[in-house]
Amino acid sequence: MTDNQCMYCEETKKLTDLMTFICKVDGFSLYLFKNQAYKARCVLAYNEHVAKIVDIEDDKYINYLMAIKKVSTALTNAFKPDQINLGFYADTVPHVHAHIVPKYVGTLDFGSTFQMNPSPVTLKDDEFEQIMQQIRQALI
After folding, report:
1. For residue 5, what pLDDT is reported?
2. What is the spatial distance between Cα 93 and Cα 78, in angstroms, rounded to a whole number?
3. What is the torsion angle, in degrees rounded to the nearest 10, for the CA atoms of residue 4, residue 96, residue 130 and residue 126?
4. Which among 22, 23, 60, 79 would be 20 to 30 A from 137, CA to CA?
């Protein structure tokens, strides 16, 4: 089921302005934020339109959490962050999705909650592509 108002279901301009599709992880869509204020910050979107995490069947929820762990492990192996922060926010985008945010000691917001819209850090196309390639390789 999709929702034609949902940026994840319809892959709208709002979505593509914020992030770029990397690959599927166990059937779930993984995106890299274009704003790289937090190096390798990703979102893993649930593969069906579900507005609330409590509405996911238990076995599917476990699969989703395992995919989040797989991405977190890949980011840890590829980028060696000091911590991975997870965030589930659906107030304004009611589609289950997890923000997976590597955090590094001495950088933006380490020791506190990551910002949804920090000051932009834009990479050159080849630098951005290199991060996506590192993520894809680490997921193998």
Report:
1. 82
2. 29
3. 40
4. 60
Looking at residue 1, its pLDDT comes to 47
For the segment 12-71, what is each residue's pLDDT rounded down to a tens digit? 899 999 999 999 999 999 999 999 999 999 999 999 999 999 999 999 999 999 999 999
Number of domains in the chain: 1
Edge-to-edge strand list for the sheet holding 83-87? 19-25, 28-33, 42-45, 97-103, 83-87
Closest CA to 25 of 67, 54, 64, 66: 67
Query: What's the predicted TM-score (pTM) here?
Result: 0.94
Residue type, 95: H
Name the residue with tokens 């991060």.
131
Q: Is residue 2 part of a domain?
A: no
Domain boundaries, position 104: 7-139
Closest to 117 in 3D by CA, of 27, 18, 10, 48: 18
The residue assigned the tokens 């779930």 is 28
